[in-house]
Amino acid sequence: MSILTDKNAGKTALLMGNEALVRGALEAGVRVAAGYPGTPSSDIIENLAKVAGERNIYVEWSVNEKVSLEVAAAGSFAGLRSLCVMKQNGVNVASDFLLHLALSGTRAGLVLIPCDDPGSISSVNEGESRHFARLVEVPLLEPGNFQEAREMVRWAFELSEQFRTLVMVRSVTRLSHASGNVTLGELPESDAKAYFRFDGSLIDAQTGPVITAPVPMRHANQQKKLKQIAEVFETSKFNTYTGPENPELLIITSSVCSLYSVEAVRLLKLEDRVGILKIGTTWPLPEKLVKSHIAKAGAVLFVEEVLPFLEENVKVLALDNIEETGIKKYYGKIDGTIPSVNEMNPDHVIRALTAILGVEYSGMSAEYEQKANITMFTKSPSRELTFCPGCPHRASFWSIHNALAMDNRDGFVCGDIGCYTMAILGAGFNSIKTAHAMGSGTGIASGFGKFKMFGMEQPVVSVCGDSTFFHAGMPPLVNAIHNGSDMLMIILDNRGTAMTGFQPHPGLDVDAMGNRAEAADIAEVCRALGATVVTSDPFDIAGTREKLLDTLENGKGARVMILRQICALSPEKKGKRQYEVRVDTSLCRGTDCGCDRLCTRIFRCPGLVWNKEGGHAQIDEIICAGCGVCTDICPAGAIIRSEVTK
Amino acid sequence: MKDPYNVIITGVGGQGNVVAARILGNIMAERGYKVTIGETFGASQRGGSVMSHLRISGKTVFSPQIPKGQADLVVALEPIESVRVMAGYGNMNVKVLANTRSIYPVSVICGEQNYPAIEELKASLAGLCSEMHFIPATDEAVKLGHAILGNVMMIGAVAGLGVLPFDESDFEKVMAVYVSGPKMAVNLKAFEKGMEMVKNN
Question: Which of A39, A179, A261, A488 yields a CA-CA distance of 20 to 30 A from A414?
């Protein structure tokens, strides 16, 4: 049985932060959960989907984050406790609805968990979701450890119901994807009935229509709720203080940054001089609590990630209450004591503390550091990210790159979000020249494709994944078609939301809970929008290149090419080789042939290595996934593939 | 045991780094320790270096990131990854346990950078740690039927080092959640082989 549905309250187990968040939702009796995959948030919906039957929950992977929040809101409106989950970028996508939802109010508990990625460990930005809480005026909680992750989500549902407002519980990568001991609470009996009542007064969202009008009344009402919530936050157990009564320096922190702060203070042995105020209820701030701690402190240091959210809010609060707090020196991101970009760690806090308090500390001697760095640089060649062995994207970009080079008109590729973003690197032969948000490559290409009138003759190509196509790829495509943009959209269809762990999307015949679902055919959708569509298997190198050259040379207007091949890590493919591949060393001409090691120097599959001593290419038996593509790129025919007999 | 005891498990995406950390973490949590595992798995399948930080304490919850220079044990599923970790977390008391099987970075495959010989690597590492053990875990795992068992051998090797209070029965208890029957038997065999290799090293 899954630990997530273990009925032994009081039991302690090692849970991932995301699992702790899930357990909290289950303990709150969540009935509806929706989201769109995005690291580091994806495991939350995945884990809920696994126990959906057992716990009587409706779980869905929605087409995008805005729709997922709408689905979760419907749950709340129908009287079901509902959860919505997304990575930080998703909050931007959902924000239009989020603003309206804050105004209309909610019914049954509705919780939004955005997972931020400070340091962009798995992102192409390091945006912040916390500002949305202030922007749209909803309460925001931030768990500081694994136990709190469970408890806070559970409490967030109660808070949401008490005040009939959406509550945000913000996680970060180092909580979501870290693990720690969690003591379990009670799981409720599963029982729920959905009904949407609308016969009440126009101005009562609990019984009447759920709408945002009249705006001034509802806006004022939401602000009144926030004032009441701030009062509740004053005595929340999630706000803790450790340290002396009158600290020389007060650290104000939240989230996992509180753990970094504790560690830094401990390593520097500053427990008698530095206090730590860990805020779990980040917005609206508990004013009385915060100002009483500032009043007793000599100075204040903010430790948070990524933007100075606490720092700005506390400073405004302190200025408003300066007679009580006194004039204090504030250190943080704004004055540069703490780096203003990237994620935090204990060492950043140590550096800030040593600078402010003038104490000495060295975690590593200068001599050791120098020796270790020299060793690293000379003995540890860097590992650039690359596509997996057997990845269809390597084959796709091989053809795209070669076709654009043969076309010889400085054609280029506009990309967006997915594994294929790595085609900005050598992994994809540096093909991608713009990379932004979901679907943005096609939107940008739609623009470029209109600039012939200004003399721009370069071929314009966009790439878009299959999940991304449904999420945000259709509007820019229809825009390009309608406006007569001359561009080629290449849909890299690897049959799933591969980058985040193979979640289903509307193009597949299965849903989040494993039930059979209606599959939308991408080619048919594109044709219905008015595009010409060509399909190819990227593992057919010659055929794909020919089709690409043909559309580059002869195509007019907005065209679609679908390159379809299942991801090498998909459950149906993983661990199964289509081909046994070997190098015939008598045929491999090594560095002597005209190709100058085309296979290893340019193609760069991790499963195909260069044997320096022998002067020939070689298959790494453990790494090779058996796709057989390298056979077709070797000009000497030295790479031999033979079909694996099943 | 030093408290907290800081372990770094490092390797290359796709090697099973995250699962190895989870197994070791679960073993220590089952033994009553407070364990924090910090993981970087954005690049987990994409040829990048991956690292898991384990903080094991009898007292309190530690942060998911080990501070600079504070590792006690480095377990490298790929040899050169051991050296990479030293620059951030090494010290003269750290112990290193490394698998001998190389996974070449694309920078090496394409000829831009060189991959050092294992002997050369050992010589450099000797000046950066208190003891090191290189064991042919992947090679032995292939003999048992699957390369991925190399990770279990590395966990067995950690037990063999005697730095953390756990044994084969603790491992078996945790693995029972994942496997049973003949699969359990081969895992136990891999664990024992790891223990044996580090003791004879």
Answer: A39
